[in-house]
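Entry — protein

Goal — fold tokens:
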Amino acid sequence: MITLYQFPSSLGIRCPSPPCLKLETYLRMTELPYQVAANADVLKAPKKKFPYIEDQGRVIPDSSFIINYLKDTYGDPLDRHLSAGQKSIMLGMRRLMEENLYWAMFYSRWAEEEAWAVVREQFFAHLPVPIKWLVPNVVRRNALRDIYGQGMGRHSREEVYDIGIQDIQAISDFLGDQPYLMGDQPTSLDATGYGTLVNLLRASVGSPMQEYGLKLENLGAYCDRMHARYWTNSPVPEPVEVG
């Protein structure tokens, strides 16, 4: 049984982390049996980041490395029909979502005061006093440092959202009227697409990017399609304590 370590549900969605939601969606798309750890502690994660998994005595961090491991170990039912050229296109689109749009979304949650108020309440309200008076500000300071170090935080607010909106429009144009990002059949790129777009469109924290994305009807329809296919008809596992 694969054990998945990730953040708990928050902001009105299954997981407020695009990489975590991507990975759990991939597990559901491939029908691999898994359980979610209730006692997941990001400070104990191999790279101090979620997600990671335990499987057959191995611990594998990072959503992309995990998916590569799962393909090598259990087969590749989603992508095996694709050509090398199609896989290259998938990689480019995945990079757009995970390495660029992700940081604009990260900025919108941690740098904007109104959004930060929502994030603070949702992520840290459960902490006991006085920890919840101190930890949120430390985490936010580290997040803003990471955004600046990555480069997105060096731009103005308007420039950040212009970058993000260009990415969102590119995803919408790439999807077009197709049911899935690569055409008629779902692929692993759709795990990334769903994890990203649900966090963009459906999380209960607004931004100019969310407002723009909600106007692109094919993106909302895509999220609904993926949810109906992979989340509605099979139970979502309750977190379990693992030792």
Residues 84-110 form the longest helix (27 residues). Residues 103 and 150 are 8 Å apart (CA to CA). The domain at 2-230 is CATH 1.20.1050.130 (Glutathione S-transferase Yfyf (Class Pi); Chain A, domain 2). The beta strands are 2-5, 34-36, 52-55, 58-61.
